[in-house]
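Batch manifest, entry 17 of 40.
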Amino acid sequence: MRLTPNGHIPLCLQNLCSFNGVDCRAFGRLIQYCSDHRLLRQANQLHARIVQSSLTPNNFLASKLINFYSKSNHLYEAHKVFDEIPDRNIFSWNAMLIGYSIHDMHGHTLNLFSSLLSSYSVTLKPDNFTITCVLKALSVLFPESILAKEVHCFVLRHGIDSDIFVVNALITYYSRCDDLGLPRILFDRMHDRDIVSWNSMIAGYSQCGFYEDCKSLYRKMLDSTRLRPNCVTLVSVLQACAQSNDLVFGKEVHQFINERKIEMDVSAHNSLIGLYSKCGSLDHARELFNVMSNKDEITYGSIISGYMAHGFVDKAMDLFREMKNPRLISTWNAVISGLVQNNRNDQGVFELVQEMQEFWFRPNAVTISSILPAFSCLSNLKGGKAIHAYAIRNGYDHNSYVATSIIDTYAKAGFLRGAQRVFDRSENRSLIVWTAIISAYSAQGDANAALKLFGDMLSNGTMPDHVTFTAVLSACAHSGMVDEAWKIFDEMFLKHSIQPSVEHYACMVGVLSRAGMISEAAEFISKMPIEPNAKVWGALLHGVSVSGDVELGKFVCDHLFEMEPENTGNYVVMANLYSQAGKWEEAENVREKMNKIGLKKIPGTSWIETSGGLRSFIARDVSSERSEEMYRILEGLLGLMKEEGYALWDELDEECVYT
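Output type: structure tokens
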């Protein structure tokens, strides 16, 4: 019997239907053919004839019908067929499980599996197809669940641990649970691996951040197997290259694609664009972008993120506006976070959030954590509180990144009590949340609170990272806690196996300089195992500017002039040092050097939130109509400070340079 795509169904039905009823096997094969060739109307006609004949489908025929309805996205009809099977075998159970699985209805998959276990018997027990569906559902709904290990035990007890589909499913499950040791053991013990086996393990390494292992396994695949990487493999490897900023390896993968003439799908193209964008090779990224015929949202999002990350804001915005109707919230978030990170808060960040909502996108946790720094920069406490309220109403306040951003916003606005309250209410205090509150107290100069929180964090079992140590050492610098700073600095490597970076050395120079230990700070720099950068020399310059050591100041500034020739602050400090020492000619020479280079000191701008909105001002500002009143109050405050014994000194008295 032969069925053409045009569907000679009536003729086939006449041949299939005999005086003895319906030939179930022939009907099953015919329905399978219709399912494979998407002949929906014909398959429905076949099912209608079965119903008309008053036949209850057996397991074989019912499985074919379930498969047809699942593939055509009619799960309700599939389950009706399943319910009418009088004596189900594992094939019909698997047909229904696979139907739910391919439509990602994982809750239904597990409920049906539970029903199967209730009907468990010698003749009815889960097989390899059952297990793969169940593991897929568990990996999505219950990662790190003991249920999967019980399923694994079942696999071992019933001897199906050598089935390649089952082992692939186990590798995928454990990889998604961030447990890469066990899946690698399973992978290494496999006698026969297919492309799914390799892809599952490579993807596991890539998604869990083990980028070097991902690239190493990819090389092993090339060297030791007849299998060739496909697009799924390449996407995982390219993402690992992008995340590890390994442009060289990424280019090797790209070359492999070109040499083998591998047909690239949209995901692979997007991964290549993402690689070049993240690694700063934006011309290559744009070239690939321009030749792509089928661009999707992720294509645009990848290159927009690349432009934003490397400061090409205008190019990113041009591409974003070219989209006209962005359909992914990740694209909106990439643009919003890019504007904030590039200090383009005045280019419609808040209006962009409003526009996003007009397209029916509600700000999510990423949006909130991206936009909050804009309020920090503007010291807009009222706006920060409004975003915090939105986060609470929508259940985002328990997100670690949102909580961290709120703590940082409140701290920079001087609302330390609010920052502490957010920290206290954080249920899952991750490292970034601990670091945020420590940094908050450090920035406010409360070293005792910062050190206490650091101790609490260690007692809680949370291990610090390099950012945490920077915050703690900065707190010590602000308060002159030299002994505590030395202790923490020494413990970085000895106790926590963290190699101090140039940031930490700069903090230690700051600690010593602020404590008046200038010679010790200079000696510390001379013994550094890494090359000091501008931050290190800048920290020493701060101490020198207080001590008035002109010769050391000149030595430090010579380094800084070479490293950052356009930083006007260094010239100002050097000129001040000469002026304080009575070396007016040298001070004049510094001023002339600034003029020759074309540098001009840009006054620092501050913001304050008033009842009339945000107001910006600079030093000695008289633009406000209430300037006289402000300066009278300021003079009173300065007088009170003098009475308390504080010595007042303008560190950067520009009059020494410009008059």
